[in-house]
Design brief:
Length: 437
C-alpha cells in the first residue's frame, strides 16, 4: 500500500472534526442495543423469538423477553440501518470533488470488503445473525436513491415496508389455510377415511414446520451438544444455517426491511431530524407519538403471544403488525436520543457513546468474539437462563464505554475501521496519533 501522503485529498476518509456527533451517539446506542437482542442468539438455541424453547419463559426470564420485545425488538437494527443509509450520502458527498466514476469505484470497493467481512464474520467467527453481508448487498441498491429529496425517499421506503407487511399478511393467510386443511385431514384420519394428496401434503408440511419452530427436547439437546464440540466441528455444523441466513432469509426478511430503513435514514438526515436540527418540542412530539403507537402495538403482540403460549399461529398473527410497532418505537427512540443530545446532560456519557459509535465495526465484531469465547469456548451455550445472559451484556457495555474513548485518544480509528479504510482507498491510512503511522 502507498503512504498516506500520496493520497488525493479529495478522496480521503472523514476527519474526526468533520464527524456529526449526533450520528455517532445514535450509532453507539444502537450498537450496544443490538447486543441486547443478539445475546439470545449467541447463548441460547432457537430462543430469539420464542422463550419456551430454551432459557426459560417464566418469572425473570419472561420479564427479560417482554422488556426487550416491547422496547428494543427491531428498533436498534432499524437505527443502525438508517445510519448506514446516511453513511452512503456522507461517503459519496465528501468525495464529490473527485471524478464521478472514482466515487462509485470507492463506494463499491468499500461494499465489496464489507461483503467479505460479512462472510468471514458468519462462517469463521460463527455469527449467523450478522448484518454486514446484508448491508453490503442492500447498500448497492440504496446507493441509487441517495440524490432523491426526502419526500420521495419516505414514499419509496413506505412502499417497501408496505410490501413487507403484505408478505406477512400473505404468510398469515397461508398459515390459516394450512391449519384448516390439517384439522380436516386429522378429522378424516380419525374416521378412517382416505386423505387427498393435498391433505397428506398439509400434514407433512405441518410436521416439518413444528420440527423447525417447536423442536422437541431431543432436538434441543442435540443442537446444544453440537455447539459444545471443537471449533471446526461447530463451523461445519453451522454451514447449512449460515447458507440459509445469507440467501433465503436475506431476500425474504432482510431486503425490504433494511432497504426501507436505509432510505428513511437518508430522509431523516436531509430533513435534519437525525442530526439534532429540530426543536425540543418537535422531538418531544416524536417521543410521544412514537411510543404511544409503538408500545400499543408491541403490547398487543406480546399479550397475544403470551396468552397463546407462543404458538406458531400467534406468531404468524403478530408478524402482520411487526413493522408498524418497530418503526413507531424507532421514531420514539430517535426523538428521545435527540432530546438527550440537545439537553447537554451527562456529556461524559455522550462522549463515550459517540466513541463506541465511531468504533462501531470493531465493537460489533468484538461482540461476536467475546460472546463466542464465553458461550462456545467455555461451553455455556444453552446452559444459562435468559435473564442471566444480560449480565454478560452489561459487562460488555461497560467495557466498551470505557475502552472506546481511551482507544480514540491514541488512535484515529478502531482497528477494523482502519483496516476497512486502508482496503477501501488502497492506501495506508494514518492510525496512531503519536507517530502518525
Amino acid at each position: 500500500m502507498q503512504n498516506e501522503n500520496t493520497a488525493n485529498p479529495a478522496l480521503s476518509p472523514t476527519e474526526k472534526s468533520a464527524r456529526i456527533n449526533s450520528l455517532d451517539v445514535i450509532r453507539g446506542i444502537s450498537l450496544l442495543g443490538i447486543l441486547l437482542m443478539n445475546i439470545v442468539g449467541f447463548g441460547l438455541y432457537n430462543a430469539y423469538m420464542d422463550p419456551t424453547i430454551n432459557g426459560g419463559a417464566e418469572g425473570w426470564n419472561l420479564n427479560a423477553w417482554l422488556s426487550t420485545s416491547l422496547f428494543f425488538e427491531g428498533t436498534m437494527r432499524a437505527m443502525f440501518s438508517m445510519l448506514f443509509g446516511i453513511g452512503i450520502i456522507l461517503f459519496t458527498s465528501k468525495t464529490n470533488a473527485g471524478n464521478g466514476s472514482e466515487v462509485t469505484d470507492l463506494f463499491f470497493r468499500r461494499l465489496w470488503w464489507l461483503f467479505l467481512f460479512g462472510i468471514i464474520h458468519c462462517y469463521l467467527l460463527l455469527w449467523n445473525g450478522e448484518i454486514l453481508y446484508a448491508y453490503a448487498i442492500i447498500g448497492m441498491f440504496a446507493f441509487s436513491f441517495r440524490h432523491l429529496p426526502a419526500k420521495k425517499l419516505i414514499i419509496i421506503a413506505s412502499v417497501f415496508l408496505a410490501l413487507a407487511i403484505c408478505w406477512e399478511i400473505n404468510d398469515r393467510l397461508a398459515d390459516v389455510e394450512l391449519q384448516e386443511t390439517v384439522a380436516l385431514a386429522e378429522a378424516k384420519k380419525i374416521k378412517g377415511e382416505v386423505l387427498t394428496k393435498d391433505e397428506s401434503g398439509a400434514l407433512e408440511a405441518m410436521e416439518e414446520k413444528i420440527k423447525k419452530n417447536k423442536p422437541d427436547a431431543e432436538k434441543i439437546k442435540e443442537e446444544i451438544d453440537a455447539q459444545h464440540q471443537g471449533y471446526w466441528d461447530i463451523v461445519l455444523h453451522k454451514v447449512p444455517e449460515n447458507q440459509w441466513m445469507q440467501t433465503s432469509f436475506l431476500y425474504r426478511y432482510d431486503f425490504f426491511d433494511v432497504l426501507a430503513m436505509m432510505l428513511l435514514g437518508m430522509a431523516l438526515f436531509k430533513m435534519q431530524i437525525i442530526t439534532a436540527g429540530k426543536s425540543m418540542k418537535f422531538y418531544g412530539l416524536m417521543v410521544f407519538l412514537g411510543y404511544s403507537i409503538g408500545l400499543t402495538v408491541n403490547y398487543w403482540e406480546a399479550s397475544t403471544l403470551i396468552g397463546d403460549n407462543f404458538s406458531m399461529s400467534a406468531f404468524s398473527k403478530t408478524f402482520q403488525t411487526y413493522h408498524v410497532g418497530r418503526l413507531a418505537m424507532t421514531m420514539g427512540h430517535i426523538g428521545l436520543i435527540m432530546l438527550f443530545i440537545k439537553s447537554g446532560w451527562l456529556l461524559f456519557l455522550q462522549r463515550s457513546l459517540a466513541a463506541v459509535g465511531q468504533m462501531a465495526l470493531t465493537n460489533y465484531i468484538s461482540h461476536t468474539i467475546i460472546c463466542n469465547i464465553f458461550f462456545l469456548g467455555f461451553d455455556y451455550f444453552g446452559m444459562l437462563q435468559r435473564y442471566e445472559l444480560y449480565y454478560l451484556v452489561f459487562s460488555i457495555w461497560i467495557f466498551q464505554l470505557i475502552v472506546s474513548p481511551i482507544w480514540l485518544k491514541y488512535y484515529y480509528f478502531g482497528p477494523m475501521e482502519w483496516v476497512w479504510r486502508c482496503l477501501t482507498y488502497w492506501k495506508r491510512q494514518p492510525f496512531g496519533k503519536l507517530n502518525r503511522g
